[in-house]
Amino acid sequence: MDLKRLRRTLTRVLCSLFCAGVFYAVWLAFFLESVRPGNATAPAALWLSAPLVTAAGFPAGIAIHERLTEQSIDPFLRIFLWPLVGCAAGAGAVFWLGPMLIVFGMFGAGTAAVVLREVVVHLREDQRGTRPP
Fold this sequence. Notes:
- There is one protein chain.
- This protein is an all-alpha fold.
- It has one domain (3-128).
- 80% of the residues lie in helices and 0% in strands.
- It is built from 4 helices and no strands.
- The protein has helices at residues 3-34, 41-69, 76-94, 102-128.
- The protein is elongated, with a radius of gyration of 16 Å.
- The model has no long low-confidence stretch (mean pLDDT 86).
């Protein structure tokens, strides 16, 4: 992998991580505002939505990067599945240690899933000979 391609990949991952952070911050603000003492069903439903909302931020960051750099744009769902699996696995792995720790599991596993996706995409491009300039 050449230096220009590595820099572009790192920028895509950082953009996706930033957007995932923004999505999580919005989710957390909504969660803190909507949870009231004595209501047990709302927090359960909101906790289950955390990986979904956070995972949506990763492809949003990639899409923003692709738009700004005028690269070909992958469909949202094709990108979304990778961080969704990562965020769900990360949240599930650390939820039992304490629900507020899911952010670390989601961001760690979600970022790893995005990096893995980028590696797979680059390997496919190399095999097909369709590397972007």
